[in-house]
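notes to self, project folder thing:

trying the whole complex as one job this time. last attempt i did each chain seperately and stitching them together was a nightmare. three parts in total, labels are on each line so i dont mix them up again. if this works i'll redo the older ones the same way
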Amino acid sequence: MESQAMRVDGNALAGTLGEIFVPEMTMARVACGGCGKTEPIGAEYAYMRAPGFVLRCCHCEEVLFVLAQAGSSHVLGIGRARSLEVSESP
Amino acid sequence: MTRISRGFRGKRAKEREEARLPPGQYLVDDFPVLSAGPTPHTALEEWTFSIDGDIGTLRSWSWEEFRALPSEEIRADIHCVTKWSKLDTTWEGISIDTLLDGIEHDATHVMAFSDGDYTANVPLEDLLDGKAWVAFSYDGQPLEAEHGGPARLLVPHLYFWKSAKWVRGLRLLDHDEPGFWESYGYHIYGDPWREQRYWGD
Amino acid sequence: MARAAVLGRLIWTLGEVVELIDETARVRSILLDVPDWPGHRAGQHVDVRLTAEDGYQAQRSFSIASPPEDRRLVLTVERLADGEVSPYLVGELRAGDMLELRGPIGGYFVWESSRQEPLLLVAGGSGIVPLMSMLRHRAASTTASGARLVYSSRSWEDIIYREELEQLSAAAGGPQVIHTLTRTQPPAWTGYARRVDGAILAETAWPPSADPVAFVCGPTPFVESVASALVLLGYPVPRVKTERFGPTGG
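result (full assembly):
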């Protein structure tokens, strides 16, 4: 099967992001350093079948960040995400 | 603290074959596809494989030239850092010894690079003396794109993330530096027998 | 209200399987009692983690089928032939078993009945699950705006929640439910008999001028095809919310 068929929405990362961040992160807005577009994490592409989880820009497919669960630690690798804006929950 | 789920066995084909499984691994029947991004598709007419050094490309092959090189059949056990292992996988590929034959260099390490901006670093000696190949066929068939075709690196004695899919070349280095997963917490060397999955292992 | 409402970290908790309901030949609903469940919003999911006796673990996400109004948490799971977790949940799991889960999760793919605009739901197979939570929530609320569901299934027998959808659509103010059956159709079937495409959506979706919001859920190729078609029809991209289930649907 094509890897594109394996991609899911950033929503799928919500549980694991919840192990690192306290606020709900799927509505956090991430700006891509590749193409400049900003989207909520929930709208970006997530690849979950890998050693780690990869969030890619849904416009240009650049790696925004990588969430690797390295043993009992989480490593949040910053790819080309330029900024992350987290608002107060409604 | 996790709770045992009554009756759950998971996808394992059978119980551990003690001697052949590195610590923490489970056997699988199928060949899981793991991917960190969309599957690249490079037309064979445009595909090249190159050995690069400091000063530039030292050697390069087109697909036809590459496939004209002497190849070998390989049978290997492979071990993924996500804990699945597959025994007796069969491949056909070209030995790294063949690809580096006659190239003068003083490299100690290699960065394999792929379509889709994926990289994996390996010490040079782990690629020599019959330990590594660039494989273009799996289980008697041309390597499928989802498994890294047309060609992938094959380094079975290290965790399988080092066997870079969609490989396009090797960059010769005089020092070690982390590739894609190694930059994100995965072990710089990755020996499954010492369970070197992550930084600090 | 418990932890999660106070922005606590998500933690793994145990739910007790209370009842199992066979929805179709391959699909089962699991009713769970989860102590201290903090409540959820329609469209959210939980992560489920299974642990074998030797410590092997597998984890998957499942959409919540029950509406926020229900005391019991309901997950509806389709058994995938080559799945690892779903055959356990839709085969082995029994009433009285405990299931480890974490949630509720997800703020991006949620719908609240306080929203005013017309609602379009497009489901492929088991993608109906989070949308059913939305429809059940809508039925339990007083809402003036219309709702339409376009639901793709392989056959009449594969339609999950078929009878409940009939009841919902028959009720005053209920959603309009449009089925398409892609593999086999019952005799005298006059409905759609192909995959959801631009033409079906042109005939069934709210017009963009109504400023609707759309939720699309199912296997990734289905979601991407439908989302593209809606955007081509004139739906602004931020008004099309997607939940891709991956290659096999969950």
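what i see at first glance: The mean pLDDT of chain B is 92.
need to look closer tmrw
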